[in-house]
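Researcher: Last one for today. Full complex below.
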Amino acid sequence: MVTDDAGQGGTAAGQDNNAGHQGGAGHNMVQLITPAGERVSHPEYDPWVRDVSDEQLCSLYEDLVVIRRIDKEATALQRQGELGLWPPLLGQEASQVGSVRSLRDDDFIFPSYRENGVAYCRGVDLPDILRVWRGAASGGWDPYAVNMAIPQIVIGAQTLHATGYAMGIQNDGADSAAIVYFGDGATSEGDVNEAMVFAASFQVPLVFFCQNNHWAISEPVRLQSHTQLVDRGAGFGIPSMRVDGNDVLAVMAATRVALDRARRGGGPTFIEAVTYRMGPHTTADDPTRYRDPNELEDWAAKDPIGRVHALLDRKGLFTEEFEAGVRTKADAVARELRAGCVGMPDPEPLDVFKHVYSTPNSWLDRQQDHYSRYLASFGDPEGATQEEGAR
Amino acid sequence: MTQMTFARAINSGLRRSLDNDPKVLLMGEDIGTLGGVFRVTDGLQKDFGNHRVVDTPLAESGIVGTAVGLAYRGYRPVVEIQFDGFVYPAFDQIVSQVAKMHYRSRGAVKMPITIRIPFGGGIGSPEHHSESPEAYFAHTAGLRVVTPASPQDAHTMIQQAISCDDPVVFFEPKRRYHDKGEVDESLDPTSAPPMGQARVVTDGSDVTLVAYGPLVKTARDAATAAADEGVSVEVIDLRSLAPVDFATVEASVRKTGRLVITHEAGQSGGLGAEVAASITERCFYHLEAAPVRVTGFDVPYPYSRVEMHHLPDLDRILDGVDRALGRPNSLSGLEG
Ligand SMILES: Cc1ncc(C[n+]2csc(CCOP(=O)(O)OP(=O)(O)O)c2C)c(N)n1
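Model: Here's the assembly. Have a good evening.
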């Protein structure tokens, strides 16, 4: 089924000057599961998810629920002072699960900071997901262990990295692909536009996966673009799709189409996943200052989890036993996440100097030497051992 | 006089500039409805409309580059870069265009652009949110670089920056945004000390301690602590980082014979190196010890659980003062 744009709306007071409507070519939005949980057919995209069995559908549901639980637990951990900050992905679970579950292990992922659901599905250790947000590291995990780059905070910078990585795949003659995640706001940055130029020119195996969650902190998507975001791709000569980002199957189908194109040498694809950020931008943000509560209500009705639940119900798959199993899993993950966070050892003072260079640097060595003497001058035996350990 | 926070003082200064000159306009990410992530522009869009207080697309090169065009057209844009670490996408426009346009056009084109950047650490933020990039800009000819350290200075200096015909990079010490102080909102910025002039914060006779931005408060606390030990520290708030008011520092060092400079930015190639070298040139025969730098380390700004080790604090500054005085300190027994 093809639906009309369900939600490019979003009005905020005081933004009238920026009211350029997202007119443009008016791409239709691919949807395979309606908000009411009805599986609707789509001749072009159905074949791409025909192999998704009932069992797999149940497992996708479990992912959605577990990720929401991770998000909730992390938000609670932030409120309790265990994390410095957390960027909730509430509402964006289907975009993340549908896309990442379409990848092969040898495909490489370049995330922004909000792809913590992607990280979970990719097998990143739970405490590692929190490490950066706890302020205990700058990068949470080993990218090569999971084929996923460390989180990127500088908006859009990762799109160029992904393009370069895909150039490397191409040079190597491999049939894997790269995927890069970014938000609607990011499409305004020069880097993202330059990435699309490079990707199209060199026809690299890359999927540009834009989660249009409608807001860049306080700025509505229409401030970033006078057309639908999906229309951006065309200008660069990049085939593009607009999918219901709250529909895990539609996202999966679109990502598979894009990956297939990449593997067959067909170059990059741009996917606009139309979704919604239900929570604040980060735990430091107050969306009531800029967002109409009615908008939130409208989107709650399109919840990504609710609709798979309804679909499974229709199929008679949502049994008590299944539900209990999912709950047990989510509980276990939340427990592990919390324990891993609270039990994470604090970094040592002299860790400040680690990993700046791969070989010794005389300027820095002198500063480290001086600082360890300084610490030792407090006569703190702990400081002294830390100093030894760092040598 | 009114008690107000540092952030509020800038807000009030921006309001006065918007009121006084129809050519002044504000641009940046989230500065309108939200009032900025630090609320520095709170309420301004509501009162001045969205052509004067403009929420821009998320594109820093775009923000500064369009400000250049607006300045060409006779406007006085005040742009906000949301955090220090996000100025780099605009770096090219700032150093290649904003800084050089007056020179390139042989004075025909003025670039009265104010670039507001919350900077520095100490607020427990993730990476890219706590940097001290001032030396890059101070090294760029054509730019004025300033940083206020008190609410009153914030209030007057933002107005002076906006009315200055040269581009001004205006660094706001973000960890001081909530600090309160007395502000005289009616003070005429043209009769106040110019933004290029350093300020003696506390008088002293034994050591000159130079600081700016977020560390002025720390330096003042260090001077108080030193006084308890019988050491008299003269604290100077640099206020302007380009050009530096060396005359004020020089006068102090001629009196004290000793110089300590502190900043959060890494040491090598930082402002401290410039002050130490220039003062050594000017006061070599008045110095009784080599100038001492107490700075951040030459490392990327560290994650929040160890940032307190990177940031100069009261004890590290006092240790630097001891070094300048030749008293027992962390380097005692070591050469140089
Ligand atoms: C270059 C840069 N500029 C500004 C910021 C501050 N900032 C962090 S997130 C954000 C909004 C991003 O919106 P969007 O790209 O839509 O992604 P979302 O947060 O909605 O996932 C901004 C402005 C930044 N991180 N990097």
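Chain A has a mean pLDDT of 92. The radius of gyration of chain A is 22 Å.
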